[in-house]
From TrEMBL:
Coiled-coil segments: none
Protein name from the UniProt record: Phosphatase
Claim: Magnesium is one of the keywords in the record: no
Keywords on record: Signal
InterPro entries associated with the record: PhoX
Highest taxon of source: Bacteria
Pfam families in the record: PhoX (PF05787)
Length: 613
């Protein structure tokens, strides 16, 4: 396969200049309908390059697997998805078998001085070696210590195909291990930016069973990861993590505490190299912005939280339209936050009561908030704890100051530099986003849509925060809405078990924008589609094309678009928890699909066939 540049030159003697006006079009594929297709990751889509002189260059796409989580790559003596203790000893499950994560997530394919490396997340442990649920096991921990791998990649110079040739697990012992690394992104300075979703760790003693789940997870970290030599604490996790790779295949890991603590799906850095936005996964969550003091500085900066001011009617079925304004939460360094997390607990920062315990006559000065879950908490900030609250209890403090914490399942984030737009995935538009007559704070009032949508956000400069102070960024969100093509559509259960329209996106999760293709790529994490898909949405033509299908029950993860690597383009894509069938799937069909899926062998791979853009 030749690169687009080479192909353009071969079309005519003026083609190299004509190709400056080329357009990339994806021709979508049908949704799978046979057991054979429903059980595998595959692509039957095509890509067409429309050149400025009216020519067409068409290529068929395919899905290529680099490795599965059970595979041993190169000198790695253990399976790719193997989990480890702090001394890098392989962990075993309760049956004495290797503890392997079947959940590959974020990918960063990086070109480091001509050498190719792939950083890959392993999000959580789904099933044990006997096929039982790891999270619901009575004899096992609900959360295992997680991992990432660094894989050396070789590229075939002639056809561009990639091959995994060596691999090793990344050591997180210097930062206390890692908790649920979900999606990620690539920094403008060519490093991997990962995440930690601290779902369980958000809860306090007043949260009952949820708090008990958190303690089980911390017990697992203490016993398995720290080998019983150290006690894990809630404030150790929930941060943005950077992995730098040098040209000798060595990694440096940094947790950026100054970016705040939350259930971070991912962070995306703008082209100024200092402004970042987060996907905050979960219920009753917020939209946050971090601005570094200078470029490439993720350890000294200011944190902001958004206020949604809806501009269309209550119960809007379009996902809602809103103006956004910003509250400054605080400024800190990672060194300061690191010190606070070692010394402080939740009870040092807030005085708190659950509704059943709260008495407004006795408890003065408290504020009612819904943040991180649908239950009301009554909070009172303790003296001199403003800055600690901003960075260790980011979501609660944002709600405490009046920011909007009503978003639901906020997932991926993508950046369109040319049009100065941000794209934010909202996997399920429901819960806090619906009108709530039971709580005084109700900023978002849209119709429930369990198929979700992808929001488009306008960015601007010269914006002031709620205190009238200038926000020092040219990329401040001011308006937010959903393009109609990116809004899911609920349907009655069809013959296969889909409960959202199969030819529309359902439960958007991973996002990646390619400026050279003028295309937003979208991966699904759907409980409403029997098979999840990767989609290509051309932001100019508004055309939506299905370009990949994952095995039934699997989430599409690891989405990254590499626009041109030595003349070839790649769309990185994984599948995790395959065979985790949705409840509505036709049982007879499920019985035919299930034997064809190896639940233990989730793939890490890419969509192949695109010329370098």
């Amino acid at each position: 396969m030749k690169s687009l540049k080479t192909l353009c030159v071969s079309l005519s003697f003026v083609a190299s200049s004509l190709c400056a006006g080329s357009m990339v079009e994806f021709i979508g594929m049908d949704a799978p309908s046979t057991p054979e297709k429903m059980a595998k990751a595959y692509s039957e889509a095509k890509v067409i390059i429309h050149t400025a002189n009216g020519g067409k260059i068409q290529r068929a796409l395919s899905y290529e697997t680099l490795f599965g989580v059970k595979d041993k790559v190169g000198t790695n003596k253990n399976p790719a998805g193997q989990l480890y203790s702090m001394s890098m000893k392989p962990l075993m499950d309760p049956f004495g078998k290797p503890l392997i994560a079947e959940t590959p997530d974020s990918n960063s394919l990086l070109n480091v001085n001509g050498s190719l490396y792939l950083v890959t997340h392993y999000e959580y442990d789904w099933i044990l070696s006997d096929g039982s649920s790891a999270e619901k096991s009575d004899i096992w921990h609900n959360r295992a210590p997680m991992s990432m791998t660094l894989t050396s990649i070789k590229q075939d110079a002639k056809n561009g195909k990639l091959k995994a040739v060596d691999q090793y697990p990344i050591d997180f012992s210097k930062v206390g291990g890692i908790w649920i690394p979900c999606a990620g992104s690539q920094t403008p300075w060519n490093t991997h930016l990962g995440s930690e979703e601290d779902y369980d760790l958000y809860f306090t003693a007043a949260s009952g069973k949820n708090y008990k789940a958190a303690q089980k997870g911390l017990k697992a970290m203490s016993e398995l990861y720290f080998e019983g030599k150290k006690e894990a604490k809630a404030y150790d996790y929930g941060y943005i993590t950077e992995v730098a790779v040098n040209d000798t295949s060595k990694t440096t890991v940094t947790k950026h505490y100054a970016m705040g603590r939350g259930t971070w799906e991912m962070a995306k850095i703008m082209s100024d190299e200092k402004t970042a936005f987060f996907g905050d996964d979960g219920a009753q969550v917020g939209l946050y912005m971090y601005i570094g003091d200078k470029a490439k500085d993720l350890d000294n900066g200011t944190l902001y939280a958004a206020i949604w001011s809806q501009t269309n009617e209550d119960g809007a079925r379009d996902g809602g339209q809103a103006k956004l304004s910003w509250i400054k939460l605080g400024h800190a360094s990672s060194e300061e936050v690191s010190q606070w997390k070692e010394k402080l607990s939740f009870n040092d920062i807030f005085e708190a009561y659950a509704p059943a315990e709260f008495d407004p006559k006795k408890h003065e000065g408290f504020k009612a908030v819904k943040a991180g879950h649908s239950e009301i908490e009554y909070l009172k900030l303790k003296p001199n704890m403003e800055r600690a609250a901003a960075f260790l209890e980011t979501r609660r403090y944002a709600a405490y100051l009046g920011a909007t914490t009503e978003f639901n399942k906020m997932e991926g984030v993508a950046f369109n530099k040319e049009d100065k737009k941000l794209y934010i995935a909202m996997s399920y538009i429901e819960k806090g986003m619906a009108k709530d007559t039971t709580f005084a704070k109700d900023d978002i009032k849209v119709a429930k849509n369990r198929c979700g949508g992808t929001y488009e956000v306008a960015l601007a400069s010269g914006i002031k925060d709620s205190n009238g102070e200038l926000i020092k960024s040219d990329f401040v969100p001011t308006r937010m809405s959903v393009p109609s093509a990116l809004l899911g559509e609920e349907i009655a259960t069809d013959a296969l078990g889909n409960t959202c329209a199969v030819d529309k996106i359902a439960n958007t999760d991973n996002l990646f924008y390619s400026s050279r293709a003028r295309t937003l790529f979208i991966g699904e994490d759907s409980g409403t589609h029997v098979n999840n898909f990767v989609w290509a949405y051309n932001i100019d033509t508004k055309k939506l094309s299905r370009i990949l299908s994952t095995p039934a029950g699997a989430e599409s993860t690891g989405l990254q678009v590499v626009e041109n690597m030595n003349g070839f383009a790649y769309i990185m894509s994984n599948a995790q928890h395959q065979g985790d069938f949705i409840k509505t799937m036709d049982k007879d069909l499920q019985s035919k699909v299930a034997p064809k899926i190896d639940k233990f062998q989730a793939p890490v791979g890419y969509i192949y066939g695109i010329p370098g853009l």
